[in-house]
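[audit] Reproducing an earlier prediction to check determinism. Same input, same settings, fresh worker. If the tokens differ from the archived copy the diff job will pick it up downstream; this log only records the rerun itself.
[audit] input (239 residues):
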Amino acid sequence: MTEELNNNTENISTPEPAATSHETTVPASDPVEPSGTKINPLLLALNIVMLIGILVLFILHFTGSGSKSSAFGALEKANTGAISVAFVNNDSILSNYDLVKKMRADLEAKGKRLEGEVAAKQQAFEKDAAYFQEQVKKKAISDQSAQEIYGQLQQNQQAIYQLRDRYAAELQQSEMDMNVALIDSVMNFLKRYNDKYKFDYILGFTKGGNILYANDTLDVTKDVIKELNIAYQEKHGGK
């Protein structure tokens, strides 16, 4: 299209001279430039306008009815300094959130209960083993009975080891479940909390974590903990 416009322009601006019997000579001081290298400023401006229009149509097509994409929104906010960020101190939540206190107390109680069961079985085993050794020293039982009792004691000891390992794995799983429940609770709360404040980001700050520095004016930990505990008390009635 540009070449056609250039050719048409040349045809309009440089009509062929009428036939004449005299030859026209060009002074040597003014060399003739090829017509193909000339740039028409008007055509260049029109081409630029057309290109911009195509780009606008392309953007509108892929962003949907002229609406701005999230990338454009983020760039605009970044350029104007309008992106809002807050953070909460994860360690403070772990120390002051009532749900965490309840979960930790339940986990510790379960750990003590399971540990008590293992300890009781271990004490009973040690008592039986001591009695067996006493009977062997006194030769109060036969060799065959001693072998049978000794084999049973070994089985009992192995069962205690297996029970201890099973309880340890159970406690570990309970702790993982507690962490998942805690994360879900905090994240779901922050979604509701942010309905009011409209932060773009709410970061989790942990000493020694990925965030090495945070401005204290962005810290909403106290307010978040307060609202978390209010919601927890309303739901569980202090239990």
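[audit] rerun output stored. Observation attached for the diff report: Residues 38-66 form one domain.
[audit] end
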